[in-house]
Request: fold
Amino acid sequence: MTNVVDKSSEAAAVVPLRPFQPETPRSFARAISKNIVASLARVAAVSLVALALPAYLTHHLPVTTYSAWILILQLAAYVSYLDLGVQTGVSKFVAEYEAKGDNPGAGRHASAGFALMVLAGALGLLLTLILAWQVPRLFAAMPADLYHGVRVSLLLVGSSLSFGLVCAVYSAIFLGLQRYWIPMTISVVNRASFAASVLAVVALHGNLVVMGIAVALVNVLTGLLQVFAWHEKASHILVSLRLVNFGVLKSMARYCSLQSIWIFGMLCVTGLDVTIVGHYDYAQTAYYSIATMPTGFMLLIIAAMVNPLMPAASAMSTHRSPAQMGELLARTTRYTTVILLLSGLPLIVCGVPLLRLWVGPDYAVHTIRYLQILVLANVIRNLCAPFATMVVATGKQGPATIAAVAEAVVNLGSSLYLASRLGAMGVALGTLLGSLVSVALHFAISMHYSRDLLAISRSRLFLQGMLQPAAMAIPALVLLPWWRPSSGAALNPAMTLAWGVSTLTLAWLAGFNGKERGDLMQVVRNPASVLAGS
Reply:
């Protein structure tokens, strides 16, 4: 890896600047559409893995062992939070400098990100060691015979993710270049290999340690694949510790310092819930973890929609007016609301039969109450995802950080307090409370101080971007007595069909205007046009 970087760095001084050519609205829309298609393709592949793996493991592992495996993955994933916004920073600055034709400038920022990631990887190793040491203290109710396997597997998976942090810089370069297909393909390969290796180990009756070895190997190979892809396809953006400039490093660190607050907020909101359940209510860990997976699917869909906005909005802000940026925000918020409800309402209304098909009746009975609350919470909190993405992309996230911090504090504080009294249900309710606080503060504070960047009325954004498309939830509210777990009633096939048709009809009419409906029909008739850029 070092040899590749050193050879590339020799050409840093002779890369020519190309003249800046602003994108036309059509080329901008074409680029972002292709990136969204790439992201959605990744969501489809990852979702297949997310459906297949738990369905198999819940039927072939004891509940206590499956709970232990989930906690291994949860603890190891904390290493990923040490990214602290470096990937976002690299993609942002690469996008901006590439738009100006300044490849050396992009390389200096990518190299600064690489230096920060090396430090993050070292911290990840230290964190993994501490967590492995503290496993018995964290999960006192876990069967003692599982402690050794959990510790060894955690060390393996956490170390491999620490290595992956460093390699992730290379994928961030592709995101900045708005070439989403390459990192998305690598991500799909990673998830497919992860699922295949775990399924094979369990089928051969391997233990937690062997499962950890398999996952660690997949993570290391994926990291090396990112480096290889950069070398073959994007090595004109140089990455080397020798290119690190203190001024650039300071600028990158300053940007990431605000990003790190957001990431810490995400840790409190979505990263600690299963661990808290494992500490206070270990018996419910497996069931609660199943409830988080469909909500994770929702987050993947929203990420696929809004993540391409990050580099695109960063480049777009250099030559678009605040009014134009505000129009983009309104349109994207409306689309996001439609996608949130289309993915979330089926999980709320038809959660019990879907869970029965997926993980069996025992898991369905214990999981549904957590699932419905978590889905509602994630629908609410992600209504402002486009706004948050755009302010982060343009480096104006300071005021919006208030909402992120408040949500983190409310979510974590209420989850800990309620978990000590209500167990796993308290953690779910804490997530819901945090989501309400987040949206309220974004509208009350964050959007007020972002008007110089996103010139749009808050009332218009709420009414047209959120409330109008939310009309598609009316049929679900009408059928509330039939899908509440405590009601004892159940939707029959005719009612389910009527609900589905009416919901889709309202989504079509309330979520899109006439021109947008025409454009979508064109895409349906000729989907290849998006990929071809025609």
Summary: Residues 1-25, 529-534 have pLDDT under 50 and may be disordered.
